[in-house]
């Protein structure tokens, strides 16, 4: 293997809609992103057990996207990878058989693994656990309230509604826990405090989980040219890695709008979350790195709201006998909103509810005949997404904690100038849009700083 000066660190993020990979190389001033790649997973799958309330993904499609992503990276640099950092969508759960979780096969010049005895991934967006069902469960001794889409809640749902399903498997984890376990042939999945907390029922005082940044194991095979025996970090939360990729000062707040949306601030060193959750609170305390915590307003409504709006427009056009690609619709609604500086229309965009108020859905008010253009509606929708997040972690609290600027990140924010305009209108702080602000880069940075 090449000398340590030329070694690379690979970061992988298994997101809700796409897989990303980034290669970091050390320089005299730190690190640079030498190469990166992203692939859509197109992994949505119907749920046999939960019906329309279920939100599941086909793990084989996720791993296919991962393999395509890595195959597109420069082979020479993959051969110099010394460490792998892996993050992914939190809260969700996938089940597998420990000795039959995957099969290693030759693919081109290097082995890859394919899922075998593996369930669908039940994602964080899953809605099978009703408020009544959640209320019937044992109260968690945790600082985080239980919600539908959380791994432990999903296990309880299967125990009650489909117990035979669980008999088929003897291991479980997040999707990124699964990938780490397959790469390192772990007989028992190893979970970090970040992922454990995201499942619910996690007690920070009695934790018996891995520290973020620690090593989970070594690759058991050469993988896409990456040497056998490469160290793999314990799986990390995608949100924490996104924050890690850009947060340099405690006076920064990080605003991320991707599929969902989050606004976060750093808690002071030594902070410990309350021992019991406040179900009505919109702010959750997420374990970060080195024992620190983040205060997070985690909204279920972000870019997915805009995607649903575009899908609605597309379906209406189909019913009218017209065919337009959704990508073209997205571009046109943004253009229309950019031409419309303001809108008195008020849209509360919580079509997916919120964890602290799941029964509150979306609403539209102040509807006037002069406010019904595509530009007015799109402008109001973008403003509503930002206002909803701001209501969860208000400007006043940001000021009280000494926030001096907002770091903007996320795919929805990056591609939507209207959203960026509304962020700058609503928050009275300078807004900086980060370069390379994503979870794959953050996962690589964590391993880079610890190697």
Please compute the radius of gyration using only Cα atoms. Answer: 22 Å
- The share of residues in extended strands comes to 15-25%
Distance separating the two termini: 16 Å
**What is the helix content?**
25-40%
Please provide the count of β strands. Answer: 22
Shape type:
globular
Subunit organisation of the chains: single chain
Structural class: alpha+beta
Give the biggest sheet: 7 strands, mixed
Low-confidence segments, given as residue ranges, are 1-5
Describe the structure.
The chain is built from 15 helices and 22 strands. It has 451 residues and is of the alpha+beta class. The longest helix has 19 residues, at 374-392. The two termini are 16 Å apart.
Features:
451 residues, seven-stranded mixed sheet, globular
Topology:
Elements: E1 8-14, E2 18-27, E3 30-40, E4 44-45, E5 56-57, H1 59-71, H2 75-78, E6 81-88, E7 94-96, E8 102-107, E9 110-115, E10 121-122, H3 131-135, H4 151-161, H5 163-166, E11 171-173, H6 175-184, H7 193-198, E12 215-218, E13 231-233, E14 236-237, H8 238-244, E15 252-257, E16 261-266, E17 283-287, E18 293-299, H9 303-319, H10 326-338, E19 346-348, E20 363-365, H11 374-392, H12 395-400, E21 405-409, H13 411-415, H14 417-426, E22 431-433, H15 439-450
Parallel strand pairs: 1-6, 6-13, 6-14, 15-21, 21-22
Antiparallel strand pairs: 1-2, 2-3, 4-5, 5-10, 7-11, 8-9, 12-13, 15-16, 16-18, 17-18, 19-20
Helix pairs in contact: 8-15, 9-10, 10-11, 11-14
